[in-house]
């Protein structure tokens, strides 16, 4: 074990840290980080026992963990943690974590916590119990940014009910943070968890191409994963139609758009008849300008014939009766 300000210990990914797959599960990462923080606090002198003697206790209020790589069964890993300095009158403390296997970063995280006095309430950072000569390691993963949700989820559907058992209560006499994570993961069946993993992999694939993720991307990906059309979704996300003069990648947003583009690419003549929609509804289709941007061999360009166009752009909407003449 290393000394302050950065505390580390080595361990092995044993079967009890894995789920149905031979890799470390998310709950295990939370447990390891919690254990590392507890051991480090005891070494510093402001652990659970030391605070209890002063009629105080600490509570973790917010935790974020980013997972980067899998830690395989029986793989050797190193768990590290460190607190960062805060202004003396601050009431929140922050602690960073990471799990590594050699040079491979498995996971990293940040926890926000507070210290409470049983009689007076919140304790300032100057009273957290750090030695005066303690040297803080003042860097946090992902800049220490934590996500805050303002939605009350009042219209959300109830999918799972959890009863707090004795094994969920910790020494602070409340439900342990790791128990919350376990309860959350138990909301899903094994098949649903597998679908979620596929969903996140596809969204990460899209994000790593430098494109911003939108609500449409998330909802459409969820729909496609549920439909079992993951391969088609991946091919659509991997395909870039064109890069504009600002360097932005133009991609299809739906499989229908992608199939439309693929048809134009593969065919010399493309017949397109958009579906007529009820009054007040409109659809957005990819512009026929692609027929100019994707020339065919032997100087023969795509021939695009359109019998009717329904589209929306800004605040101007063409009616169903609008049409363009077929052209070559």
Please compute the radius of gyration using only Cα atoms. 27 Å
Oligomeric grouping of the chains: single chain
- Enumerate the spans where pLDDT stays under 50 for 5 or more consecutive residues: 280-328
Number of E strands: 12
Note the beta-strand portion. 15-25%
Order of helices and strands: EHHEEEEEHHHHEEHEHEEE
Distance between the termini: 75 Å
What general outline do the C-alpha atoms trace? elongated
pLDDT averaged residue by residue: 79
Tell me the number of helical segments per DSSP (H or I, 4 or more residues long): 8
Secondary structural class:
alpha+beta
Largest sheet: 6 strands, antiparallel
Provide the helix percentage.
Answer: 25-40%
Summarize the structure in words.
- Strands 1, 2, 3, 4, 5 and 6 form a 6-stranded antiparallel beta sheet that branches.
- The chain has 328 residues and is α+β, with helices and mostly antiparallel strands.
- The protein has helices spanning 26-44, 48-53, 177-185, 190-207, 215-226, 230-238, 255-266, 290-293; strands spanning 7-12, 56-67, 76-83, 93-101, 104-117, 121-122, 242-243, 249-250, 269-272, 303-306, 312-313, 316-317.
- The model is unreliable at 280-328 (pLDDT under 50).
- 16% of the residues are buried.
- The longest helix has 19 residues, at 26-44.
- The chain is elongated.
- The protein is 27% helix and 20% strand.
- Helix 4 (190-207) crosses helix 5.
